[in-house]
Write a structure and sequence with these properties.
The chain has 542 residues and is an alpha/beta fold. The strands form seven sheets. The chain has a seven-stranded mixed β-sheet, with helices on both faces. A five-stranded parallel β-sheet has the order 9-8-7-10-11, with helices on both faces. Helix 3 runs antiparallel to helix 5, helix 5 runs parallel beside helix 6 and helix 10 crosses helix 11. The protein is globular and about 85 Å long. Bound molecules: nicotinamide-adenine-dinucleotide (NAD) and 5-oxo-L-norvaline. Nicotinamide-adenine-dinucleotide binds next to helix 8. One of its GO terms (molecular function) is L-glutamate gamma-semialdehyde dehydrogenase activity. InterPro entries: Ald_DH/histidinol_DH, Ald_DH_C, Ald_DH_CS_CYS, Ald_DH_N, Aldehyde_DH_dom, P5CDH/ALDH4A1, Proline_metab_enzyme. Its EC number is 1.2.1.88. Keywords: NAD, Oxidoreductase, Proline metabolism.
């Protein structure tokens, strides 16, 4: 008989520092050298079998050194997708019948493997493939992914133990937290190894089988994550990974009768396309697919005249330029009162111009390159527009160079017009738009920016005045799913600041939290009557 058990209580994985001379730095350098030398092929994983996709070849390169090829993948075809659906369907009965504790143990083992022997391999892959610095790789590929796996086990257990609180005499009520009927399609972005690892495993933990389509530019770390999960004991067919652009995969998977949910993180247009496709196919599904998507942002920092100037300056630099601004949470618009602006402007520009950028295997850099040619071109265009626009002035950065890697200098643009597109459009890179306002216009500025952008992901208020903080917290209640007071708007920690946003930023089903895991269950209410009535007549009938 199964005992009632309690998995180990989760705590956040501590960040290692990679300071010169530290053992983690030495291990990381070794892994970087190994992975740089390898030229891998990245196969699909279908029903536990590793096999080359049948479509066009895509080279996976280092963004900061785009002639350096890390490996190649082949676009997955419709035939690959059909095989993956078959494998996910075949694996489902055994996986959902597997005791919950065993499913938990697989993810807890994966977390321990990542905290130990796999840590520097996945960090190195994330640095080389996604151009993250050692620190940015550590907080993502190591700590956040470990936290997702450990905290999800804790929250899943909470869900299973959530049972009806009332039972009429002679009756026992129970809730059966079933997995969904069908498979889940997990589609993941380039920018976070942790998100890529969480999106397929969260539904799997709840007993679902999954088709996972990672981003081609994150494929190195995605393939290693898949290997790690296999080592942790994830059975064949539970998570089926299909590399490539996903276009042919979606042709098969999106209209499939057994599509039970999509777990997506990426841009708003892609998510809206997927949602529309589900709408167009709505009559063909066995059950209504769950749609969970976390998408774009136009994240803000608003400073009040009482703001601490140094706190503001550091929040602007770190919040906007860490990982080249390629976090959905990155600050890309700031509203600063003139009295504070005059105190920080020169230092802010000097600090920004001094940020070192380059090959991330040189650990002295603050930043690497943007992810690919498309992102580079988008930034060149946005910066090019500044020169010809009267109300915009370039204060820092603006230089771009793609001769070796896709480098875009951290850029600050001042705009006298808070309705410029720089305050509404997501560029997803190192460009910060600043609007300087007169000190007595704080409330008008906040009311204007509250809904000027369509997004509502992250935002920050920097202020010392408690009444101003309280007012901003209330006025900006729906402007951000993650709201920070006197801090940068990036760096949410699992279990501490559950992450996700509303409006055009997504369905706000907080990653790494119970509300997210609930979306992958379909509860069944069970009522048992111990001594059923034997007479159909009611007492009032006499
Ligand atoms: N809110 C969040 O939690 C969060 C987190 C990370 C990134 N993001 C957002 O992600 C975006 C950047 O990531 P990106 O460039 O990888 O986004 P993207 O939308 O270009 O791609 C996301 C994923 O969707 C895939 N895709 C695109 N079309 C598809 C289709 N028809 N069928 C199947 N798959 C398809 C891509 O290959 C990739 O795997 C930004 O907008 C950023 O704000 C949001
Ligand atoms: N959760 C991350 C952002 C993820 C999106 O890219 C943060 O809070 O900075």
């Amino acid at each position: 008989m199964d005992a009632i058990t309690f998995p180990p209580a989760p705590t956040n994985e501590p960040n290692l520092t990679y300071a010169p001379g530290s053992p983690e730095r030495e291990d990381l350098v070794v892994e970087l050298a190994l992975l740089e030398k390898e030229q891998r092929s990245f196969p699909a994983v279908i029903g536990g079998e590793h096999r080359e996709g049948g479509g066009a070849e895509i080279k996976v390169v280092q963004p900061h050194d785009h002639q350096h090829v890390l490996g190649t993948l082949r676009n997955s075809t419709t035939a690959d997708a059909e095989a993956a659906v078959k494998a996910a369907t075949a694996a489902a009965p055994d996986w959902r019948a597997m005791p919950f504790d065993e499913r938990c143990a697989i993810l807890l083992k994966a977390a321990d493997l990542l905290a130990g022997p796999w840590r520097q391999r996945l960090n190195a892959a994330t640095m080389l493939g996604q151009s993250k610095t050692a620190f940015q790789a550590e907080i993502d590929a190591a700590c956040e992914l470990i936290d997702f796996w450990r905290f999800n086990v804790h929250y899943a257990k909470q869900i299973l133990t959530d049972q009806p609180i009332a039972n009429s005499p002679g009756i026992w009520n129970r809730t059966d937290h079933r997995p969904l009927e069908g498979f889940v399609y997990a589609i993941t972005p380039f920018n976070f190894t942790a998100i890529a690892g969480n999106l397929p495993t969260a539904p799997a933990l709840m007993g679902n089988t999954v088709i996972w389509k990672p981003s081609p530019t994150q494929q190195l770390a995605a393939s290693l994550t898949m290997e790690l999960l296999e080592e942790a004991g994830m059975p064949p067919g539970v998570i089926n990974m299909l590399p490539g652009d996903g276009l042919d995969v979606s042709k098969v998977v999106m209209p499939h009768r057994d599509l039970a949910g999509i777990h997506f993180t990426g841009s708003t247009p892609t998510f809206q396309h997927l949602w529309r496709t589900i709408g167009e196919n709505i009559q063909g599904y066995r059950t209504y697919p769950r749609i969970v998507g976390e998408t774009g942002g136009k994240d803000f920092i608003v400073a009040h005249p009482s703001a601490d100037p140094d706190a503001l300056r550091v929040a602007m630099i770190r919040g906007s330029f860490e990982y080249q601004g390629q976090k959905c949470s990155a600050a890309s618009r700031a509203y600063v009162p003139r009295s504070v602006w005059v105190k920080i402007k020169d230092q802010l520009i000097a600090d920004t111009d001094a940020l070192s950028m380059g090959d991330v295997t040189d650990l002295s850099h603050f930043m690497g390159a943007v992810i690919d040619e498309r992102a580079f071109a988008k930034h060149e265009k946005a910066i090019g527009r500044v020169q010809g626009t009267d109300h915009l002035s370039l204060l820092a950065g603006g230089q771009t160079d793609d001769s070796v890697g896709y480098f875009v200098r951290p850029t600050i643009v001042e705009s006298t017009d808070p309705t410029d597109q720089m305050f509404s459009d997501e560029y997803f890179g190192p460009i910060l738009a600043v609007h300087v306002y007169e000190d007595d216009h704080f409330e008008q500025v906040v009311e204007q920016m509250e809904s000027f952008a369509p997004y509502a992901l992250t935002g920050a208020i920097i202020a010392q005045d408690r009444a101003a903080i309280a007012w901003a917290r209330k006025t900006l209640r729906f402007a951000a799913g993650n709201f920070y007071i006197n801090d940068k708007p990036t760096g949410a920690v699992v279990g501490q600041q559950p992450f996700g946003g509303g409006r055009a930023s997504g369905t706000n089903d907080k990653a790494g939290a119970a509300v997210n895991l609930l979306r992958w269950t379909s509860p069944r209410s069970i009522k048992e009557t111990f001594v059923p009535p034997k007479d159909h007549r009611y007492p009032h009938m006499g």
